[in-house]
Each structure stands twice: as structure tokens, then as C-alpha cells.
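To start, one record:
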Amino acid sequence: MHAKPDQPIQVVPTQSGYDRWAQVYDAEDNPLVLLEEQHIGPLLGQVSGLRLLDVGCGTGRHACEWARQGAEVTAVDFSEEMLRRARSKPGADRVKFLAHDLTQPLPLPNATFDRVCSCLVLDHIPVPRTFFAELTRLCRLDGHVLLSVMHPAMSLLGVQARFTDPSSGQKIGPASYTHQIADYLMAALGSGLTLDTISEHIADAELARRSPRAEKYIGWPLLLLMKFRRSSKP
């Protein structure tokens, strides 16, 4: 059973939404995930021997891969069902998983990680400044903070993170918040980060060939990537 194209989205709390999404997340056609996975590797670089934090790890698609590449990975998510899926994947035995509310301070020590990453999470965070401050706190002074997020331009199309519940056919949207690129940049700069790289990635015909859902978004910016350096000042 599939949802009708014009069916309204039922917005639910973020945590419960991702608990429900977990059962189909890895199998569904998700152009945003495909586009991100195409571009995030070169931006992150080699991770072997580094301590990485994956904030909002979901089903462990990045955390387990980084662990297989030789990184020491800590992965945090607020969805127990997402974490259950993550723990079942190859490489999961080399990842330290932690269930925690991402809007609250993380129970981790200051300046612990060489890379602090948060992938496709920011649009579920109500106050970016508080979130960026926490990522900065956890990053080493010579480290980097790397983030990916659905491009804010998608809000002009009325698009938010959502999935179709396989049991009911209902479109479900975990609670999201509309932020602009400037909101992210000002939150990062105000938290003591320095911008290293920012890039915007559009949906194109090649993406649509791999992901039929991307066809309706061809020509629109779909993904925003940002990489920051931790300031040398404490």
C-alpha cells in the first residue's frame, strides 16, 4: 500500500518518527542520502587512526564504514530503533553507540574528537546555536566539524524529511525546523568555529537515474555541506 501523492504529511515528534522510519530507512529510495554519500567522503578525508564522533548516526551508515576504515568511532542517536539497526551491521562491534537526546548536552568530555560529524540532522534541531556550541565543545582544537543537511531551499517546495509508513501508507514527517544557511553559519561562527568549506549540491539527471524520487527536484539545490575548523582560541 502506497501513499497518494497529494496526501498530507502527518508530523510526529522527531524521536518517534525515526523509530518508525528505522524499519525501512536503509531500503527506501532516498536521493538526499545518495547525494550526500557521493560527496561527503572527499570532504572528510582519511579517517584511519582518528577519533570520530557521529552525532545523529541513524542506522550507522557512516559510523560502521568509518570504523571499518580504521577510525575510533563514537555514534550517538536519539532513536533506539535506529541504533538497534546500526548495531546489527558489519563493523558495529568496533563502534561505541550511545542513545541520547541530541538537543541536550552530550555526556562526553571536552575536546575529545578529531572529527565531529553530524549528517542530515540539523533540520531537526530547534536551536542551531546551542547545537553548534556542543559540537565545538567536543572537537579538539586542531580538529574539524563536518555537517550535512537538506538544503534550506527545499522548504520553498514544502519539502521536509519524510517517509511512507509501510503498514498504513501514511506519509510521516519527523518534526523539522526551517533554518537558513545564514542561521547555520552564524551559529557556527558564534560557537568559535571557522568556516573551511561550504558547498551546495543540486539534484541532476544522473541522480535521478539512480533515484527516481529525485526527478521532481532536478535543478534544485538538495544538499548543503559545511566543514569548519575549531578556533585555536579556547
Summary: The longest strand covers residues 139-150. The CA atoms of residues 151 and 223 lie 5 Å apart. Residues 1-5 have pLDDT under 50 and may be disordered.
